[in-house]
């Protein structure tokens, strides 16, 4: 009987239809069962740092007061809550499309979130200010730390490219702009021209940074740097006394001038550099290499060394022995002074110095104060105090030494 029914095609069709109806009717029951379980699976989560978008006329308006982020608390089925927290596939926004110029309180809204969730935004409003959007051109000033300049180098006016930038912002913020500055970030000392890209900063009069848009955000700054130098004479200073029987005929150097580098204020006070020649062990014509000596405040000299040629006379034992003679209070003359200036001696205040002359006794006997003159060279000196070498003019066949080798003077303008 059953076998015959199973072989009947219509019987199988009826059985299949009944099973399909039963299966279909069971689906709502399963959904209802699932819905009935939702309350027991409800979950609450707080999502932090949710960005806030704002919608307004960005071409003509500027808005301030919109919070960068908010907290969103969501409540609902656990699986939907967890998925929403993970994906953050919703939007928190402020609609200012109909906002007017001025300050107003507007709601912070949320959208694109499942309708099975309850969402709360904290804060749920914002006090925003809507202002007219203004764009204006400003000149960019460049600055850098001048203390980084090496001694002997000076900077010229920085060159900024482009010279001006466009600054966009709220009208009242644009009116507060006092400084538009590009600060050069230089890592070390400076002794040559520097070119760097620098970010433009916009500040008010109290040096507070202003919230504006700068176009371009960075500029190219070039700071021309050159050496602060001048050329001065090299003076020869004889040190020591030659051995008995040896007299110094002449001392020559192969270079007469040197170039010095210093800060401008130190450069103006330096009139010469010197080489010191120790003759205490010179027995014959000699050539030496000696350093060029610079004063405090001079950072560099070129050349650093010079060659010195010393020519001597060596006397026989039976020749006249050397003797010394002191010429007292020889007046110190001033040469080369500008005719519009006058000079006063500070040290020696008497404008005079003692000179010891050294030579063979038969020559020394014939010499007097009239055969020698002391002077200082005041050429090209400006007003102020100066210390100068005292120079001597006298016969070639004797040596001399000054009791005081320098003089301090004060140069003033004639009344």
TrEMBL record:
Report the Gene3D superfamilies cross-referenced here: 2.170.120.30, YbbR-like domain
Residue intervals passing through the bilayer:
none
The record's section on InterPro entries has: c-di-AMP_regulator, YbbR
- Which Pfam families does the UniProt record give? YbbR
What name appears for this protein in its UniProt entry? YbbR family protein
Task: Give the organism the record lists.
Answer: Bacillus methanolicus PB1
């Amino acid at each position: 009987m059953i076998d015959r029914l199973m072989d009947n095609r219509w019987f199988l069709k009826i059985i299949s239809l009944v099973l399909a109806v039963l299966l279909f009717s069971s689906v709502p029951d399963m959904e209802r069962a699932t819905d009935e379980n939702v309350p027991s699976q409800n979950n609450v989560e707080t999502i932090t740092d949710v960005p806030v978008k704002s919608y307004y006329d960005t071409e003509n308006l500027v808005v301030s007061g919109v919070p960068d982020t908010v907290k969103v608390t969501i409540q609902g089925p656990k699986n939907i809550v967890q998925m929403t927290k993970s994906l953050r596939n919703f939007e928190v926004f402020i609609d200012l499309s109909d906002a007017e110029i001025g300050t107003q309180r507007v709601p912070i809204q949320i959208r694109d979130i499942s309708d099975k969730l309850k969402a709360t935004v904290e804060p749920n409003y914002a006090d925003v200010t809507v202002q007219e959007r203004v764009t204006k051109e400003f000149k960019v000033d460049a600055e850098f730390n001048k203390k980084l300049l090496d001694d002997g180098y000076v900077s010229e006016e920085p060159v900024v490219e482009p010279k001006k930038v466009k600054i966009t912002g709220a009208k009242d913020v644009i009116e507060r702009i006092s400084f538009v500055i590009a600060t050069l970030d230089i890592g070390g000392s400076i002794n040559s021209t520097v070119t760097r890209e620098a970010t433009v900063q916009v500040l008010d009069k109290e040096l507070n940074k202003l919230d504006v848009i700068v176009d371009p955000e960075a500029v190219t700054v070039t700071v021309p740097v050159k050496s602060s130098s001048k050329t001065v004479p090299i003076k020869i200073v004889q040190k020591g006394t030659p051995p008995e029987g040896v007299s110094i005929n002449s001392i020559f150097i192969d270079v007469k001038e040197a170039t010095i580098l210093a800060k401008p204020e130190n450069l103006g006070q330096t009139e010469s550099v010197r080489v010191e020649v120790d003759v205490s062990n010179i027995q014959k014509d000699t050539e030496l290499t000696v350093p060029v000596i610079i004063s405090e405040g001079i950072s560099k000299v070129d050349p650093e060394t010079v060659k010195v040629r010393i020519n001597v006379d060596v006397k026989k034992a039976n020749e006249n022995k050397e003797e010394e003679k002191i010429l007292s209070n020889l007046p110190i003359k001033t040469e080369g002074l500008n005719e519009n200036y006058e000079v006063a001696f500070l040290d020696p205040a008497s404008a005079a110095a003692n000179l010891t002359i050294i030579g063979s006794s038969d020559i020394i006997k014939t010499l007097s104060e009239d055969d020698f003159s002391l002077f200082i060279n005041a050429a090209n000196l400006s007003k102020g105090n100066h210390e100068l070498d005292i120079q001597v003019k006298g016969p070639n066949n004797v040596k001399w030494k000054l009791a005081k080798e320098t003089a301090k003077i004060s140069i003033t303008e004639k009344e």
